[in-house]
Amino acid sequence: MPGAYERRRFLRWTGGLLLGSAAAGIAGARAAGRTDSMTGTTPTAAAGNGEIRLFLCGDVMTARGIDQILPYSVDPVLHEPFATSALDYLRLAERANGAIPRPVDFGYIWGDALAEWARVAPDLRIANLETSLTTRDDWQRGKGIHYRMHPANAPVLAAAGFDCCVLANNHVLDWGVTGLAETLQTLDRAGIKTAGAGRDRAEAEAPAVMTTASGRVLVFAFGTQSSGIAADLAASAGQPGVNLLADLSAATLRRIAAKVKAARRPGDVVVASIHWGGNWGYAVPAAHREFAHGLIDECAVDVVHGHSSHHPLGIEVYRGRPIFYGCGDFINDYEGISGHEAYRGDLSLMYFLKIDPASGRLSRLWMVPMQMRRFRLQRASAQGTRWLCEVLDREGRPFGSRVVAAPDGELEVRW
Q1: For the chain, how many structural domains are there in total?
Q2: Residue 266 and residue 268: Cα distance in Å, rounded?
Q3: 379-391 burial, b if ≥16 CB within 10 A, otherwise e?
Q4: What are the tens digits of pLDDT across the range 4-15?
Q5: Which of 9, 134, 302, 344 is the most interior residue, by most CB within 10 Å?
Q6: Is 319 helix (H, G, I), strand (E, B) or coil?
Q7: Residue 49: per-residue pLDDT
Q8: What digits encode the pLDDT tens for the residues 347-383?
Q9: Contact between 402 and 413 (Cβ < 8 Å)
Q10: Could you tell me the CATH number of the domain that includes residue 332?
């Protein structure tokens, strides 16, 4: 896990003097929170009791319109069927909710999430980064959408304090293998671990390994073709790419089990992060549920971190292990785009969980609802929070879980 020195060095390397007070504040708050959690004296969280506190979220898309409001921006030209410039997405958002300042500091887009991270002080923060960090122009032909952010804007990820960015998704290769190489290099310089993509198959399959005061956390990341990852984007012995699963079969589970067994030590918490399924709709395929159960039963996985859906799906706690079938988008530039309003794409969730590393079992799971306004996360309204509570409770019931309103606008999962 990178320390404060490594993060400061990265901010200088990227021109981090532009990092505004919001990002600087979260860096200080996070450093204080982590130090306090190690000594059991965090004023805003329960005293350390050996549990590991994780933050998870779904897709983080900091490209297009969001990239254009940050201190550095790539060429806004797009190769999309309906938009020719990333500035089109900025104009849509402003038309919907008002003017957006620019350039903003690196903490701006996280808004109220910064205070939540500082208050909860999770040991680790894990996100699916659905954006290539590159200035390369080798855009993938035959693909309608291409996400990229200027590498010099990478301090926006440091401002969020991400420890691990999952890359096994359908956008990390939008700008070719050279774009992937620059993405990996940029995140490595930031001290942010990656999983699910690499310069060859071995690197793509390798877990991100992170250490907390209470034990290690291993993140294995996988992608599936059902999420839009083309078969030719799979990493191989001599080819960069993503860790693409051929299928969700018993044989695939056996291969994953062997990888986990080779890397795992007693007391490790294992996260399987998987990009699967379509963007819209609440139905969870039976194959996904069977595979998620198999990851826990046969591969000794403690957390199944699913993503790809643009909105949150139902949650299951199986044998004391959480399964997120779809975490939904956490941040994107879709503000002002019409269509699919019934799914409330403006709403997103911060997922927090506590796990006992000795047993691998979940002790608490709660979410903080957020809402996107002017390309900035803010706490969701009371109406938005109620809506999310009702939907998640409805979708979780078939899996044996309930979602209830908790104090301070949080949502608590019960099982």
Answers
A1: 1
A2: 6
A3: bbeeebbeebbeb
A4: 333 433 333 333
A5: 302
A6: coil
A7: 62
A8: 999 999 999 999 999 999 999 999 999 999 999 999 9
A9: yes
A10: 3.60.21.10
